[in-house]
Amino acid sequence: MKTVYNFNAGPCVLPKSAIEAAIEGLKDFRGTGMSVIEVSHRSKEWAAVMDETRELWKNLLHIPDEYEILFLGGGASMQFLYVAMNLLEKKAGYLETGVWAKKALKEAKGLGNAAAIASSADKTYTYIPKGYTIPKDLDYFHITTNNTIYGTEIKYDMDCPVNLVADMSSDIMSRPVDVSKYAIIYGGAQKNVGPAGVAFVIVRPDVLGHVSRYIPTMLDYRTHIAGGSMFNTPPVFSIYVMNETLKWLESIGGIDAIHKTDVMESKMLYDEIDRNTMFVGTANKEDRSIMNHCFVMAPGKEEFEEEFLNFAKGRGMVGIKGHRSVGGFRASLYNACPVEAVEALVRCMQDFEKMHK
Fold first, then answer.
1. Does 1 score more than 80 pLDDT?
2. Are residues 184 and 44 part of one domain?
3. Left (φ > 0), alpha (ψ -120 to 50) or beta: where does 153 sit?
4. How many domains does the chain have?
5. Which of 191, 220, 262, 321 is catalytic?
6. Alpha-carbon gap, residue 223 to 248, rounded angstroms
7. 178 and 76, same domain (yes or no)
8. What DSSP line would sit under 28-55, residue for residue?
9. 100 catalytic residue (yes or no)
10. 130 catalytic residue (yes or no)
11. 229 neighbors 74 (Cβ within 8 angstroms)
């Protein structure tokens, strides 16, 4: 098997231990003689996985007891609708920091009065808005903590006068989070906590049940709370791999430990982007994401973009092409990205610079 360095923005690089456990689970799930993708989700063996996975979430993020943890299909994009369906009665506010935040706002607008309280669209979402005021009459205020396409991140838990809702798809479990400051935290698993196919939702139940609209059964968070995320058949394989991924995270010291690693790897790459005469970063330095590192060729070097992509590919770099809407390059250093991969990318950038001196 050839050596590659996976910098894809999602699905993410996974711990080898989780992949190996997934392979074994596909062959024989916990001694049942059946594959994990054919075992009954009502069996005691699967119930144990669901309970374990919830406990891992609680322990790793120190989630208060009053919160419920859900594992649902549909990805984070479906949660754009869930949130508005369950919380929007009079008015909602959104912080527009990128494509996904804009899409979340669109779903809310389809159900009622929702608007951007602040936006960084004026500079192609290369910064996090500051100095705005959150109206106190909102049903909720929605933020997207990490913006994968543009490489910006909100790295703190803000004080909010209304229910705070956060899409943490691409930075969950990368830093300590004060969950008590949020009404809902949600995201797709395929960045830091597992494969595609399942969304996680951390919800404080007291914020539910206050809208006058009819909520379809499958779009009502209370349905899934009552059903233990098994009102209908859950995405069992995705949850199983999530379980193994979180076990790996726990085994290496949890979120405090991985945060130190993430910050170290991120600094290593940004230092090279800033030093290298061939490249320049695109996000405001103070708002740079530690997950998604976006950069382009330096002014006057644009003609070398395709050459660098091919050069990097030849060195085993996978997934560093920037999103089609912005171009350039993007290296995603999610939790399971080994330091050796970052070192290899830095050497690749340095060697490319030497070629063009």
1. no
2. yes
3. beta
4. 2
5. 191
6. 31
7. yes
8. -STTSSS-TTTS-TTSHHHHHHHHHHHH
9. yes
10. no
11. no
Q: Is 210 exposed, middle or buried (0-12, 13-18, 19+ CB in 10 A)?
A: exposed
CB-based contact 103:152 (threshold 8 Å): no
d(CA 157, CA 80): 20
Let me know if residue 11 belongs to a domain: no
In this structure, the answer to whether residues 221 and 318 fall within a common structural domain is no
Same domain membership, residue 286 and residue 227: no
Beta strands 292-297 and 199-203 are: unpaired
| Amino acid at site 103 | K
Beta strands in 89-191 (DSSP E): 92-96, 114-119, 140-144, 146-147, 152-153, 163-167, 184-188
Q: Is 256 a catalytic residue?
A: no
Token pair in block for residue 298? 């330096």
Tell me: the pLDDT tens digits for 27-64?
999 999 999 999 999 999 999 999 999 999 999 999 99
- Please report, as a single letter, which amino acid is at residue 277: T
Residue with tokens 């797709």: 188
Structural domain of residue 263, as residue ranges?
Answer: 254-355
The one catalytic residue in 100, 139, 220, 321 is 100
Co-location of 265 and 347 in the same domain: yes
For residue range 274-311, list pLDDT tens digits in order.
Answer: 999 999 999 999 999 999 999 999 999 999 999 999 99
Q: Are residues 221 and 107 in the same domain?
A: yes
Boundary of a domain, candidates 251, 275, 290? 251
Compute the Cα dihedral for 254, 256, 257, 258 and give only its sign: positive
CATH of the domain at 184: 3.40.640.10
CATH number, domain with residue 335: 3.90.1150.10
Q: How many CB atoms lie within 10 A of CB 65?
A: 5
Identify whether residues 120 and 131 lie together within a single domain: yes
In a domain, 8, yes or no: no
Pick the catalytic residue from 46, 57, 139, 167. 167
| Residue the block writes with tokens 């770099």 | 317
- Rounded to an integer, the average pLDDT of 194-199 is 96
